[in-house]
Prior knowledge:
By secondary structure, the chain is of the alpha/beta class. The protein is built from six helices and 21 strands. Strands 1, 2, 5, 6, 7, 8 and 21 form a seven-stranded mixed beta sheet that branches. Strands 10-17-11-12-13 form a five-stranded parallel beta sheet, with helices on one face. The protein has a three-stranded antiparallel beta sheet with strand order 14-15-16, with no helix packed on it.
Amino acid sequence: MLDVIIIGAGPAGLSTAFWCDELGLDALVLEQSEEIGGQLHRVYNPINNYLGLKARNGEDLLERFTADVDSADFDLWTQTSISSVDLKAKRVSLASGEDLQSIALVIATGVRPRELGVPGEKEFAGKGMIESATRDRNLLAGQDVCVVGGGDAAAENALLLAEVCPTVTLVHRGKKLRARPEFTANLQSQHCITVFTESELTRIMGRDRVEAVEIQRKQGLKPFQLAVRGVLIRIGVEPNTELFREQLETENGYVVVNSQHETNVPMVFAVGDLSNPVGPTISGATGAGATAAKVIASRLNAK
Ligand SMILES: Cc1cc2nc3c(=O)[nH]c(=O)nc-3n(C[C@H](O)[C@H](O)[C@H](O)COP(=O)(O)OP(=O)(O)OC[C@H]3O[C@@H](n4cnc5c(N)ncnc54)[C@H](O)[C@@H]3O)c2cc1C
């Protein structure tokens, strides 16, 4: 019987484990990927908003986290697939057949990029479909591109691509872009950027790589094809909560927690982006992990 099982080794899960060690709790972290770090692997921009340090990008910050993680005393199993979880019993069953049990459970499974779900999206991954303009825009320099989404991330990526691409078409389903005003003002001032609102990208086409997209403007109008060599999709994220959703209170898939980061199931905590739909940040994730560990320690010490 462990004190704490932590599911997910992004910033929230790692911080929880680090604090568990600090507080003398016996913790095990289960991570499905080969590597720890979660979304930090997808942060290509400089991180200037983590108080007390600046990092060149997510990998750089992860290196610093790893130094602390390596010196702490907790167990970490990567490439671990969980087949089911019984939250009330605090029992985790692994695909390998092993059953694990703890006094407290901390869920820190984060979020993943939302997919459009259109033909061509998976097929052309890495073949003209890019994930980040910061990282990949030079691959598309001199080419026409299409960006899907209407929030800050889509707008920011469209602006970065506009620095190197002759045309950038931004396709957004809603009536108005949701991006912050400075981004929308910049989009309007760039002649090479065309914004299609109330429109949907319905297909990505090509032979060996992206060559065109199909766009459906307002319902009723005929879809049209646009020749592009690159596509970037930024339509938000989805919480990784499918494994637990039926067993605890959620709202739009996000886990509902109280100020101690405890869910409606006693001694089951949720920390990081999966319980923070409004303001997900690295500092929020690490802070939530620290709070959860302290609450668990105080409950166990009171017994
Ligand atoms: C492009 C980009 C730029 C960003 N820039 C900033 C920034 O400048 N500043 C900032 O503060 N934040 C930034 N963020 C947000 C920040 O990365 C997140 O807030 C943070 O990573 C959340 O940490 P987390 O631990 O909650 O979740 P995640 O980082 O999503 O980690 C979750 C972990 O759980 C694992 N997992 C999922 N399901 C399971 C399962 N069933 N079993 C086991 N493991 C599982 C995942 O593999 C992953 O390792 C950025 C994010 C992106 C994508």
